[in-house]
Amino acid sequence: GAVVSQHPSWVICKSGTSVKIECRSLDFQATTMFWYRQFPKQSLMLMATSNEGSKATYEQGVEKDKFLINHASLTLSTLTVTSAHPEDSSFYICSAPDPGQPFAEQYFGPGTRLTVT
Amino acid sequence: GNSVTQMEGPVTLSEEAFLTINCTYTATGYPSLFWYVQYPGEGLQLLLKATKADDKGSNKGFEATYRKETTSFHLEKGSVQVSDSAVYFCALSSTGGGNKLTFGTGTQLKVEL
């Protein structure tokens, strides 16, 4: 099946700095990608929909100025956590729907563990 | 809004035991329903899906039936293996939702010899 990669797999940063997470579709083109956040023992929470060539669509309650999303090409979306704080520590996961599947079959990246100290 | 409720884990079973993980949902319209599995250190993978009422999704010995009358999509397997140890997520995608998925909290399954 299709593969989605994320980089880095884990990152530790200091409070106040910014961190960029990459999500790549390796063998298919993804006009849309999704970014999720997962807290320990909790569900995946959809943060935003990344659209190639246009602005991302953010879910209610997600700060667009804090979580910057750029979908610069059909195989790459990036999430930048700006001015990170300890409460931003979490597991961030991206996914991309298979363009050949009509019922939202999505391929997920392995996730990025962010720890803000 | 849409929501998915799963039984809490962890669920610990002996190999060859019968597995049921309950999932119920709330959604507008006629959602598609999914079970995703996350093995340790890996990304979520689609396990099975059902797109309309009474459909049965099946894969790798796992089954789930879309029950509109009870708004449920319970996951079952007749005989689990140690290799089935993972976290299982129930999810839905609502009509016109633009491929957005709403997930349950996940249920960790541990299968022991």
Total DSSP E strands of chain B: 12
Percent in strands of chain B: over 45%
- Written as H for each helix and E for each strand, in order along the chain, the element string of chain A is EEEEEEEEEEE
Q: What class would the helix/strand composition of chain B place it in?
A: mainly beta
What is the helical fraction of chain A, as a range of percent? under 10%
Distance between the termini of chain A: 37 Å
Total helical segments of chain B:
0
Number of H- or I-type helical stretches of chain A: 0
Question: What is shown here, in short?
Answer:
Chain A has no helices and 11 strands. Chain A has about 120 residues and is mostly beta strands.
Notes on the structure:
The complex is a heterodimer of chains A (117) and B (113). Chain A contains no helices and eleven strands. In chain A, 0% of the residues lie in helices and 52% in strands. In chain A, the strands form two sheets. In chain A, strands 2, 4, 5, 6, 9, 10 and 11 form a seven-stranded mixed β-sheet that branches. Chain A has 117 residues and is an all-beta fold. Chain B is mostly beta strands. Chain B is built from no helices and twelve strands. In chain B, strands 2, 5, 6, 10, 11 and 12 form a six-stranded mixed β-sheet that branches. In chain B, strands 3-9-8-7 form a four-stranded antiparallel β-sheet, with no helix packed on it. A two-stranded antiparallel sheet of chain B has the order 1-4. Chain B is globular, with a radius of gyration of 13 Å. The relative contact order of chain B is 0.34. The interface between A and B is medium-sized, with 21 and 24 residues.
